[in-house]
Amino acid sequence: MSTVTGRTAADCMKRSLVHARPDQKLTEAEQLLIDHRITGMPVIAGTKLVGIISNTDVARARVLAGALDGQVRDELNWDETQADGFQHPAPEQFEGFSDRYEVLRVRDAMRTQVVTCSLNTPIAQVAAAMVREHLHRIIVLDSDKPVGIISSLDLVRLVAEGK
């Protein structure tokens, strides 16, 4: 008998839903991911699912800030006197994007297109959606309210335990 036959999302989901708020500092959401040893979580405003944030999204924001810093600093440090022979006034002081990272909010880095399923979605369909969409997690909804999450690790655990 297959480990997934008859199983639904409700049977396999984690019900303790760690989540972020869209107005929360991105650094706080990053700390939540670290503290709970998870790689992604839903973003919830009130009781409504509005997005999803992952380690990849956080890393992308950090890397982009660093790359932009380097590009702008290279431009600002270019010696204009070598190009046209004239002395130009000193450029404005650049504050840096990395410094601004500290004030970014979750809404600035989250993804708003979230793949979800219902409590009674067969687990085989959940797994197929994860493969098709190249996802590591799917949020489980009861009506429109997020009530759980299924990660790729949850599916691997299900197979490993043979249940």
Tell me what you see in this structure.
By secondary structure, the protein is of the alpha+beta class. It has a single domain (9-161), classed as CBS-domain, CATH 3.10.580. 40% of the residues lie in helices and 18% in strands. The chain has 7 helices and 5 strands. The protein has helices at residues 9-12, 26-35, 55-76, 81-84, 97-101, 123-133, 152-161; strands at residues 40-45, 48-54, 116-118, 137-142, 145-151. The strands form 2 sheets. It has a 3-stranded mixed β-sheet with strand order 3-4-5. The chain has a two-stranded antiparallel sheet with strand order 1-2. The N and C termini lie close together (9 Å). The mean pLDDT is 84.
SSE map:
Elements: H1 9-12, H2 26-35, E1 40-45, E2 48-54, H3 55-76, H4 81-84, H5 97-101, E3 116-118, H6 123-133, E4 137-142, E5 145-151, H7 152-161
Parallel strand pairs: 3-4
Antiparallel strand pairs: 1-2, 4-5
